Amino acid sequence: NIAVDNYLVWMNGRLVFEDISLENVCQQLNRLYQIDCRFDSDSLKNLQLTANFSDDSLEKTLSVIALSLDLAYRKENNEVFWSVIAF
Fold first, then answer.
1. Is residue 50 within 8 Å of 61, Cβ to Cβ?
2. Strand 79-84 relative to strand 71-76: parallel, antiparallel, unpaired?
3. What is the pLDDT of residue 81?
4. How far is the C-alpha of 61 from the C-alpha of 15, rounded, in Å?
5. Fewer Cβ atoms within 10 Å of its own Cβ: the N or the C terminal residue of the chain?
6. Which of 25-29, 49-53, 81-85 has the highest mean pLDDT?
7. Do the beta carbons of residue 29 and residue 72 sit within 8 Å?
8. How far is CA 36 from the centre of its chain?
């Protein structure tokens, strides 16, 4: 189970995602940081992420995810809103 493995890794200061959908990434972030994700489009949920974080804050983790997937995000209280970057 990827979520259980990531929880154990997170307890040691690391977080690993290997070709996981943004929706699943958000589910794991919810378990670890008690945040909920909202998406401007359902297609964003299917974006795939591969990343490895070590002792990073939630804000830095969200920033790296956004940069990796070419997305924008904003955090309000315990919610993260994902959207496509407008040019």
1. no
2. antiparallel
3. 98
4. 9
5. C
6. 81-85
7. no
8. 10
65-80 pLDDT tens trace: 999 999 999 999 999 9
CA distances from 71 to 7, 26, 31, 33, 39 (A): 25, 14, 22, 20, 11
Q: How far apart are the first and last CA of the chain?
A: 38
Furthest C-alpha separation in the chain: 39
Residue range 22-42, pLDDT digits in tens: 999 998 888 888 999 999 999
Q: Which residues lie across from 24 on neighbouring strands?
A: none
Alpha-carbon distance of 86 to 77, in angstroms, equals 23
DSSP 26-64: HHHHHHHH--EEEESSGGGGG-EEEEEEES--HHHHHHH
